[in-house]
Amino acid sequence: MLTTNRKPIKTLLLTALISFNGLQSNAQTKPGTTEITKWQYGKTGAVSLTYDDGSMNQFRKALPVMERLKMPATFFIITGSIPGSKYHGKFIGRPVKEIIKESATVPTNDQNFFERCSAAGYLGYMGTIASHTQAGSLYDSGKKDKAFKVLDDIYAKARNGELKPGYEPNDEFKQSVGSTWDDFRKDAAKGYEFASHSITHPSMPGLDEPNLLWELEKSKADILAQLGPKHTFSAECPYGFENDRVMSYALKIYPALRNRMPEPWLKEIDRASKQTPGSTDKDYIQWQRGATTKTPLPVMKLWVDTTLNHTNTWLVLVFHGIDGMGYEALPSTLLDEYFQYIKSKNDKLWIATFGDVTRYMREREHGKAVASAAGGNIQIKVSHDLDGTMYYLPVTLKTYVSTGWTSVTVTQGKKSKKVKTTKDEKGTYVLYQAQPNEAIVTLKKG
To answer: What keywords are annotated for this sequence in UniProt (predicted)?
Structure first.
C-alpha cells in the first residue's frame, strides 16, 4: 500500500513508485500518485453568489436570472418575517417598564448597556428599533459614550411620552415580507441554499446573551423544521459584524459563518478591505466583495479575473437590494450581464453555494487518499475525519497513470464511469469524482 508523510490534514500526494505489470511508466510522476484537487472538478478557483436579507426582489428579479444560467446561490434569510415560523422577535429579560423606570435615575453604562440595547426595540413604541441598531453599531466600533447617549435619549423619550405606541421592525425585516416556506422549499429543491440571517435582523453586538442566543438558535430551529439540516450549516450575522463576542456564540451554532470563519488554512479578506489576493502561506483565500450602486461593472468583472489569476482564491460576492428594493439596490439588468460574465468562465471557476465551498475545502483539508496496486489496476481509498451528516460532498481526485492509458474506467461501489486521460508537465492523469468514506475506488485501463 502507498501512503505519504505530507501533512495529514491536507491533500495527500502519493510519491512512492507503483511497480507492477501494466503500470510501470517512464513518466516524471509515478502512476498511482493521487491528490485531492484544491477545487471541485480540478478548477482554478471558486465563486459564491450570496444575498442578504431575503428582500422580495431577490426572488422576483435575481433568482430567475440565475435559474436561466443554472447558477446556484446562497440566500441569508430573516426567518421571523416568514408566515409559519414558530419564533419571532421578542425581548427576554425583566419587564421593560422596570428598565424604562430605572433609566430615569441610572444612566446607561457598561454594566447595563446590553440589557438596555436588547430591550430598546421592544419598549412598546414606534421607532425604537433604529436606536437599538445605532447603539449596537457604535458600541461595536468602540464609541461607547455615543452608544450610551443614543440609549439614554430613546429611553428618555419613552419615559416622557414622546413616542407613538406600537412596534415597527427595521427596513430589512419589512422588505423581506412576502416569501413563504413553500417558496423556499421549491427553490431549495433546485439547489439554492437558504441560510440564517437571524429572526429580526438585530444589531447583535448590542444584545446580551439570552437575546443573542434567541436570535441565533431559534432562527436555526425554524430553518431546520422547514427546510432540513442541510440549510442549518451556514449563517451570516446581520450587518456583517465580526464582533468577537458575537462570533464566539455564533461559531458554536453554525459551522460556516460568512462574517468570520477562523481556520488555520484560510486567509479571510472581508468586503470592507481594499486588500486583494496575493501571496500567502494559507491554502485558501476567501475574498469577499460587495458591489454597491457606485461600483462600476468593469471593477466587478475584475474581481472575477483576479480570482482566475490565482489558484487558491474563493470569491464570495455579497448582494443586498435589487431594482430599488433594499440596501444599495443594483439593477437586475446589471446582474444579468455580470452573471453571464461569471458563467462564461465556468470552465475554470467552480460556481457553488457558500455552504458547499466550505464543505469541500474542509473535506480536502481533513482528507487523505491512499493508493495501492491490484492486479494491474489502481485502487484508491479516500476518506476524511469529519461528521458525515454535514460533510457529504464528493471530492475530485487527480491520479497519475501509465502513459499508455488513454482512458480509465473509474468504479466506486455500484457506480462506474469511463473517463479520458489528460496530460500535463508531470505526466498522464485522470480527474474523477469520489465519495469519501465509502467503497474503494478502482481505476482500470480503458
So the answer is: Signal
pLDDT digits (tens, 9 = 90+) for 321-362: 999 999 999 999 999 999 999 999 999 999 999 999 999 999
Helix crossing, 209-227 with 181-188: angle to 10°? Answer: 60
Report, as an integer, the average pLDDT of 270-291: 95
Residue 17: inside a domain, yes or no? no
Segments forming the whole domain that contains residue 410: 33-41+359-445
C-alpha cell at 381: 481509498
Does pTM surpass 0.85?
A: yes
Burial of 253 (0-12, 13-18, 19+ CB in 10 A): middle
* Residues 237 and 321 grouped into a single domain: yes
* Helix, strand, or coil (residue 341): helix
| Residue 240, pLDDT score | 94
CB neighbour class for 93 (10 Å; exposed up to 12, middle 13-18, buried from 19): middle
Total residue count of the chain as it appears in this document = 446
403 with 307, same domain: the answer is no
Task: Identify whether 327 is part of a domain.
Answer: yes
Query: Please, are residues 339 and 68 in contact by the beta-carbon 8 Å criterion?
Result: no
Cell for 275?
A: 486588500
CA dihedral defined by 252, 360, 258, 187, rounded to 10 degrees?
-100
Nearest Cα to Cα of residue 141 among 213, 240, 214: 240
- In this structure, the answer to whether residues 390 and 431 fall within a common structural domain is yes
Is pLDDT at 12 greater than 70 in this prediction? no
- Whether 176 is covered by a domain: the verdict is yes
In three-state secondary structure terms, 198 is coil
Residue 198 CA to residue 388 CA, distance in Å, equals: 26
* Cβ atoms 371, 436 nearer than 8 A: no
Report yes or no: 8 and 17 within 8 Å, Cβ to Cβ: no
What element of type H or E holds 420?
strand 415-420
Within-domain flag for 7: no
SS3 101: helix
Query: Element (H or E) spanning 374, and its range?
Result: strand 367-374
Examine the domain organization and report whether 210 and 305 are in the same domain. Answer: yes
Buried b (16+ CB within 10 A) or exposed e, 371-397: bbbeeebbbbbbebebeeebbebbbbb
pLDDT of res. 438: 97
